[in-house]
Each structure stands twice: as C-alpha cells, then as structure tokens.
Amino acid sequence: METIFVLLPLALLIAAIAVGFFIWAARSGQFDDLETPAVRILFDDEEPRPSATSRASKTTADSTRRVPE
Amino acid sequence: MSRPRETAPHGGRALSPAAVRVAPVTCAHCGLPVPPGLVRDGEKEQFCCSGCRQVYTLVREWGFDQYYRLVDQQQGALEPARVTGRSFEDFDDESLQAEATENVGADRRRTRLYLEGVHCTACVWLVEKLPAVLRGLDEVRLNFGSAVAEVTWRPGHTRLSTIGRALDRIGYTPHIHRASRAEEARRTEDRAALARLGVAAACAMNLMFLHGALYAGEHSGMASPYETFFRWLSFVVAVPVMLFSARPFFRTALAGLRTRVVHIDLPVAIALAAAFAASAWNTVRGSGPLWFDSLAMLVAALLGARQVQRSAQRTALERADSLRGVAFLEFARRLTGDGPDAPAVEVPLSALAPGDRVEVRSGELVPVDGVVLSGRSSLDNAVLTGEAAPLTVREGDVVNAGATNLGARLVVRVDAAGDKTRVGSLLSIVQEALSRKPAVLRTTDVMARRFVQALLVLAVVTGAAWLHRGPEVALERVVALLVVACPCALGLSVPLALSVALMRAARSGIFIKNPDALERLRKVDTVLLDKTGTLTEGRATVARWQGEDVVLQFARALEAESAHAVARAFRNSFGRSIWVVRTVEDVVEVPGQGIAGRLDGHDVRVGNRAHVEADGGTVPDDLARFAATVVADGLSPVFVAVDGCVAGVAGIGDALRPDARGTVTALRARGVRVRILSGDHPVVVARVGAELGLPAADALGGLTPEEKRDVVARLVTGTDRAGAVVMVGDGVNDAAALALADVGIAVHGGTGATLVAADVVLTREGVTPLLDILDGARRLRGVIRRNLGISLFYNAGASTLALAGFVGPLLAAVLMPVSSLTVVLSSALARTFAVAGPARRRLDSADRSVEATASLAEGRSAKAEA
Q1: Which of residues 41-60 of A touch B (CB under 8 A)?
Q2: Which of A13, B81, B171, B651 is deepest in the core (most CB within 10 A)?
Q3: Which residue in chain A has the smallest CA separation from B157?
C-alpha cells in the first residue's frame, strides 16, 4: 500500500503536465477560432497539388507552382 | 400608404399571354438567372454579370474547380461576384506597411485582411488555396466567423498589392484590418478565461477523487498516515484553483467594494475565502472538515457558465470587432499629373495632403472632404446625412467624404482627409461614446446586496447559536453556512439564461452584442427611429404600380439599359433579370425626361408626362388620378407608354417599409413614445410621421448627426424618463446617437460604423424585430426570476440545515451540483426568443456568414442542451 505515496503524486504530476499543455495551447491562441478548423478538415484534396495543410514542405514545391498570368 | 409592391409582379408570377416566357439560363458561378441580353450563343457557361465571369474563369484557370462542388456540398448559395478591379497599390505604401504588418522571421511578413464576400465554408477552402498559385505567398488562414484572413508572404517574391488583386479577382475584396485595442484585450481575456476554466475543472475532478477516498475512509476507517497524506494532497491541488482560477472573483469583489457596489462575486469570494482558510487550517492542524472539493467545483461551475456566455456573445461580437478594424474609407485615387485626365494611383488616405487632386469613379465612395474640380454627377448622401434624394454636384461644389458617387467620374480637390473629415470626426465621436458607455447595475447585483446582508446576519446568528459548544465548533458551523449558502446557482442563472437567449436571438436574426442591453430593455421609455434606411428602404424603389404586367416588364427591360436614378429604382425593386423581352433596340435617353426604345417590335417610352405625351399619347383619367395619389404620397410618378398609348404609372421613391406602420403602432400600444430623428428634409419627415400616426412634434427632420446625438444625450440624461432610450438607425449619421443611447439597434443593411456602435444588430429585414427584442427581453427577465427563485429556495433550505448543524462537506458537495443542475435545465428550456422557421430570407453575403456562424453556434448550443 505504501506505493500510493509515490504513485499518487506521480499521477498528479502527469495531470499537471497535461494542464500545463492546455494552458500553453489556450494562451497561444489555439482555441481562438473553434469553427474554421472544424470545417477545414472536411476538405479533401482531389488533385495532387501542394495542399493547404502540408505547408511544411511547400517551400521546396515552389518550382511546381503555377504563377498567374 | 397602401402596401407597396402589392400590385407589382415578381419574376416567378405568371404573365399575360402576350409575353413569352423564356427558360432561364443560370449563371455558372452564382447560379442566378442570366438576363437574355447577356446570353452568349455557343458558349457552354453563361454568366449573369462580368464579375461572375471573371471569378469563374480565374477559379477554373487556377484549377480550383473543386470549389463549386464544395459550394454545392455546403449548400451555400452564392451571390453574384463583385470584382472591384482596384490596383491595391495603397497596400504597398510604406507607412501603411509599417503600421499594419509585422515581420515573421527574416524574410517574411504577415498582415491581417478583412475579406468582403466570405459567405460559406467553401470560401475558406478557396482562399487558403491561393498560395498554391501565387508565388511568394506562403500562407493564408481565414477565420470564417470574423472573415479575417491572416496572410504571410515573402516581400522578396511578391507584393501585398499582388495578393490583394488576386483576392479581389476571385471575388473577395480585401481590406487592411488593424486590430483594435478592444479586440486585442478581448482576445487575451478569452484565452486567460479558458486557461482558468481548464485549471479549475482539472483540479475539481482530481479533488473529487481525493475527497471520495477521504469520505470512504471516514465511513470504513482509514489508517491515519494515509488520511494525512490525502488531506495534504488535496490542499496542494486546491492551491492553483484559489490562486489562479478564482482570481477574477476576488478581483471584481474587491473592485466592487472600492466603488461601493456589491457585486454577485462578493458572496462567492467570501465563501471561497472562508472555505479555503478553514480547510487549510484544518489540514495543517490535522483535524476538522475539508471543503476543497466544493470550493473547486464552485469555481469550475461558475467559470464554465461564464465561458458559455462568452461563446454565445462571440458570434455577435466577432463580426463587429472585425469591422471595427476596417477603416470606413481606405484609399483614394490620387491624380499624378496635370489636367483632369491624368493617370491615378491608389494611395492610402494618410498619404494625401490638402490640395491633392483625387478622382472618384462611379459607384465609389468619396474618400475626402473637398471641392469638385471637374465632372458632374449626383451623390448619395443617405448614409451620411439621411437625405433620401440624391444631390447633384458640379464644378465648384463642396463634397463630403463618405458620399457615394452615383453618376460620372469626378475630380475632387482634397481639403481634408482621414480623421479631419466630417465623417472622420463623426466616427471618432462614436469611439468616444462607446468608451464612455456606463456599466449598468444588473438585477443580480441588487440581489447580491440583499444576499450579502442576509448572509452576514445568518452567519452572526449561527455563530452565536453554537458558541455554547466552544468557539471552534461555532467557527466550523459558520464556515459550513458560508459554503452551502454560496450563491452558486444565483451566479449561474444569469449567464446561462442570457447565453441561451443570445443564441436563440441570433437564430432569429437578432445579434445582441451587449447583453446588458436586454436588461436595460426591461422598461422602454422612448424609441427613436431613423427614417432613411430604417423606416424606409433607404433607396428609391418602385413602390407603386398601376397598369398591366406586360407594360411593367417592358418598362423594366428599357430601364435596364440606363444608369439613371429611375432605372436604379427599377433594378432595386425587381433585380436585373428580365425574361419576357427578347430584343431591345434604338434606345434613346432624353435628359431630364425619360428613355425610349424599340422592344420586341413595340415603341416603348418611360419617363415624365411630357416625355410620354411627346409621342402623341394622352394619359387616361384613371392613370392621371393614380399619378396624383402617388404625388400626394411623396413619390414621383413615372409614366410608361407602349406604341403611343400610355398604359402604366409607377410611383418611385423611398417608400416606408411594409412593416413600419404595424411596428410603430404596436410600440405605441405598449406605452412607448416613438419619435423619428432624421437628417432628411423636415417636410418629408413630417409626412412620414403623419403616415405612421405620430404627433407632429415627434417627427424631427433636418437634423445633423451632431444634433441627433444631442437629442439622444438630452433624453438619456433626462430625469423624467420612465425607462430606457432606444435608438434605431442604419447610417454613419446615426452611429454617435446609437452609441450614446441606452440601447442602440442597427438595422439590417446598416453601415459598418453602426454595427460597431450598436448594442444590437439585426440581420433580418425591416423593423419588426424591434418587437421581438422587447418580447425576448421580457421573457428573459421571467426566466432569470425563475432561476433566482430556485437558487434562493435552495439557499434558504441549505442555510437552515447549516444553522441546525447538519451540513458537512459531503452534503455540501452533493447539494451544490443538484441546485446548479436545476438552474441549468431551467435556463436551457427557456423559450425567450422565437426562432425563425426554415424559410430563409435572401440575405446579403456579409450577413450570410453571420448567419452561418449562428447556425454553427446553434449546433453547439444543441449539444450543450443535450
């Protein structure tokens, strides 16, 4: 039973880390817009093009982009 | 006036046999019917206007065809696209860039653009796809609710003006959006509130577990080292709740005390402080009850209710806030050479100096105060002054910023720009009035004072009653009383009832930005109505018609060829599409008289009496009589002759809305004094007042915006008033009055300034929603009263138990959620505002996105109710 003296604070510590992440997310504005992300996820890409979501790799995709006019 | 347009046929009505009905061709972009004149033979796609054609072509060219499938999926109806064709060169201005953009990393910049024309979620897709085709544009993130896009680009590869043009060409007119301090503050506060709620909820849940173990241990026996360990752990978990989450309660309670106002947070703060202090002391000394779980639950529940209210308000606030960041006038076309035909460059208003020359194209807003140097045109001042009739201007005439140029191009010498213009100073009055708007004491705050008094008396009685058992027991009883008597349900009832009311109101086309407004509407003394745009449509329409349908169709088809004010009235009334007339030839406009042409082989003349009689026609007696009644109603008669025979008369003017009379009568029946405040000519206003059955003294015309504001200010500060002063308006000239009134209501189609200034924004046509707001406010009061009754009943019962010494931490932990739940249910089931049926009215695109956000909020509230 003595193990509870270790496990309980440990559990609370993990909970505290989770809450810490939540505070960070809230403060950095991730909950500011609750509507657009909910609809954004519904858009499927039909053609293979640099998509709106895989933006990380996009700087290298410059050469494949079409420029208007 | 008889009901306008009653006799006017609309597009769908059966026409007489003489007319041939052609199957409508629909626009490939927006799906609206294409006028026959614009149908191009042999083309697969047809368009209703050049805007739609441009947008469609570009969207296809960029390979974004999926957009149209998404629009279908979202069941979003499109509006005809608007492409301004601006160069957006002013976006590249250095001072503007320094002010409105920020650096991200070494070579990227970011700014926020408010996009006009965002109407459904497919727009999010399209706008965020732009980086795929625009080199140097790195990222676009569009917030659908506020229609503000965050744009990141690399200045080395592209310019902001290029991005602006691209957005414009796919139908979204971009505007530079400057985050206001109020918006910044609200966002920070929103984020902090969410973090506080998260901490409170997490701690409350963990405390429930820990206390569950303690309660169980109390029942079945628990070895003392474990008990001590659990007690200390719950103390540790409760600390962040007190120090972080509960801070707003202490802050408002203290602030209230300083200004000698007892806020509802005061009894909450007292309960929290007493419970925490007693529990902490009991933890340290190792015996006595702990209240940590009740305390954390209380904080979590109250913060949760406030969060719900916040998100209900957000729907209405977001759009207004984003409009607040957009300047009413943004740019001017400055001439860059000598002579009136020198090329123009778009510059921000801050770059203009007095003496500069700017051009104002047809359909654009005059950006500056100044004098016309060349050109003749008519200006629409309705938004600025409330005058319904257009004003003719020529060389040497003074023009004011904010007027719409209805006619030809003008060249204007700049006398003042930006804040120094008349409209600029009006808008700064609005800002000032908004910042001074007093906070109003809410019902619960009055309740709170009595509550605190009763609580203190009870605490003394309890303490005295238990003193014979020793001070320790007495203190414990007092703490128990303070905890169970804490007005948790009282604190929940108002935000919850409010947020349900706000969501229901939003669904019925009433966006309440400031919930205090509902409280102030409890008793209404005076309703002040603007005339142009509020009681009337705010633009000339064909208000009356006598004659055959076919004749009207001919008149419409002929007027479709003209840009004259009468032609606009026809378009305003019936839209652009005409089916019955197939050929229009030999159109001749006679200035000051009318227009003539050959339609499907018939000679048609539309214009004044002299114009139709010039062709040999005579006006029959019945039509002449009708024309006389039209004139008596303050409208202008327009005669229509077909093949030399005068066959119809249209009454054209800014007619009263169909629901104006009924609404005014209903308001007066409730004992509300109704007055008209208008900038239009006193004679016109007097006639409208008489038509509505108002006494002559209550129809004030010829008021400048400043005078309007002063009238409102006098009424608001008056001592003899029996209730709130409500101002209803739509134009820039009403904005200051709206901000100053107890409750400002902006009607559908109002300018951005009124949306910012008003407490309530209507997205439904007409003035009938006024009655709905009053009814809703009354019902909301009933719900709040019921909730207060429930919570007081609980508090009285619990206090009696505490006084008798029956209440321990466990009972308190059970009683609190039960009472709160009753209040939640009572609020959720309340029918404060009638929700409009599924039949939706046609809305303009800006409103539709507000509507869409409302329906999203609707889904959320449905979830909350479940």
Answers
A1: 42-43, 46-47, 49-52, 55, 58-59
A2: B171
A3: A62
DSSP A29: T
**Other CB atoms within 10 A of residue B712 CB:** 26
Q: Report the C-alpha gap between B511 and B506 in whole angstroms.
A: 5
* Cα B606 to Cα B620: distance, rounded to the nearest angstrom: 16
Q: Quick check: B192 and A27 CB within 8 A?
A: yes
Percentage of residues in chain B having pLDDT higher than 90: 13
Cα(B210)–Cα(B228) distance, integer angstroms: 12
B115-158 pLDDT tens trace: 888 877 788 888 888 898 888 899 998 888 788 899 999 988 89
What is the span of the domain harbouring residue B392? 331-417
Q: Are B683 and B570 in contact (CB under 8 A)?
A: no
**CB distance from B63 to chain A under 8 Å?**
yes
Residue where a domain terminates, one of B112, B147, B178: B178
* Beta-carbon separation of A55 and B63 below 8 A: no
Domain for residue B39, yes or no? Answer: no
Query: What is this model's ipTM?
Result: 0.70
Residue in chain B nearest A63 by alpha carbon = B135
List pLDDT tens digits, range B208-256: 999 999 988 888 887 888 899 999 999 999 999 999 999 999 998 888 8
pLDDT digits (tens, 9 = 90+) for B732-751: 888 888 888 889 999 887 77
Contact at 8 Å (CB) between B491 and B297?
no
What average pLDDT does the segment B194-216 reach? 93
With contacts defined as CB-CB under 8 Å, which chain B residues touch A22?
195, 198, 202
SS3 assignment, position B547: strand
Render pLDDT for A25-67 as a digit per residue (tens, 0 to 9).
999 988 888 778 887 777 766 554 444 444 444 444 343 444 4
B740 domain residue, yes or no: yes
Task: Mark whether B61 and B160 lie in a shared domain.
Answer: yes
B80 and B152 co-located in one domain: yes
Residue with tokens 């700049």: B414
Q: How far is B144 from chain A (nearest CA, A)?
A: 5
